[in-house]
Amino acid sequence: MSNADHKFIRVIKGRRPKVVVIGGGTGLPVVVKSLHDQHADVTAVVTVADDGGSSGIIRDYINVVPPGDIRNVLVALSDMPAVQRDIFQYRFNSKDSFFAGHAIGNLIIAALSEMRGGIFEAVQELSDMMQVDGHVYPASNTPLTLHARFKDGSEVAGEAEITAAGKQIDTVSVTRSNDGEQPVAEPEIIQAIMDADVVVLGPGSLFTSILPNLMIHNLGDAVLKTQAEVIYIVNIMTQKGETDNFTDADHVRVLNRHMKENFVDTVLVNIEKVPAGSLDEDKYVEISKPVRSDYQGLRDMGCRVISSDFLELRDGGVFHDGRKVAQEIMNLAFQSHLKKGR
Q1: Which of 22, 63, 81, 305 has its Cβ near the most Cβ atoms within 10 Å?
Q2: What NCBIfam families does the record tag this protein with (predicted)?
Q3: Where are the domains of the chain?
Q4: End-to-end CA distance of the chain
Q5: 222-259 burial, b if ≥16 CB within 10 A, otherwise e?
Q6: C-alpha 244: how far from its chain's center?
Q7: Tens digits of per-residue pLDDT, 295-342?
Q8: Signed CA dihedral, 32, 322, 282, 244: sign only
């Protein structure tokens, strides 16, 4: 750790850096857990527009917010003994027509949501039970439907349908699934964003994991208004049906266009080459190819670029190294805290 980093730590001694991470999918718990391990005060805001897999089936049966991403983030921030976390994550392999493929945690979240009349209060109660160090907030207290308009002018509703359409997405929006009205984020989310040292977007699917959160108007407005440093973790690989042939700057352009201003302050970009043959294409069918760099395009939008080897290869997949990413986020949080004079 550098002398400058020690200086930052002394300035905020007794107060952990406040980091809000917004997103969904497999990348979110990796970053959240690494930030937790580095003693950040983490608030995770999790997308609730997922309509696939176990989460989608449960949502169709009992009309609750899809619990899968929330479950993984709860476990990432939990200080429960490992055996209890493993039970929560256990996925049935029974041939039973209902339980097969479901994670116990998904069923618990769904049950508690019914008991408490909504996902938000259910997750707060479950956070206490699971000894969560930090906060886990569903982006909305009700299930959301994701809508996409494609470049050819056609429109589709539903995350799975949007990805399967195989068309170039122009814009996305969200509505409440039960009545088609505009969703609203809970006040706790808005306050966390306004109080944060840094707000982190990603890593995750641009159109189906990150933007659905920002399209909740009061949540998106808070991201625009906060004094926190807004950080975007650029995906290492493009995603079929969403970001084919995108550069890192293209990702940020889409974010800025949806929010109607250049709001991303810093981008984290992986520069380590992905070795040929390292991706199991049968297992990760949605992954396309490495994201190309356009540093000038990023700078033209006012972004500070932090490029490093953030690559981790495991399980036949291409991922961000959570520890390295969290270290950069922590450094930026310390700097942001000093800049605001807190």
Answers
A1: 22
A2: CofD_related
A3: 3-47+182-339, 51-133
A4: 22
A5: bbeebebbbbbbbbbbbbebbbeebbbbbbbbbbbebb
A6: 20
A7: 999 999 999 999 999 999 998 889 999 999 999 999 999 999 888 765
A8: positive
User: Is it the case that residue 179 has pLDDT exceeding 50?
Assistant: yes
Structure tokens at 263: 């709001």
The closest of 64, 65, 76 to 26, measured between CA atoms, is: 76
pLDDT for position 54: 42
Q: Can you give the length of the chain in residues?
A: 342
For 89-92, the CB contacts below 8 A with 24+ separation are 91/54
The hierarchical CATH code for the domain 3-47+182-339 is 3.40.50.10680
For the record, the structure tokens of 259 come out as 């929010």
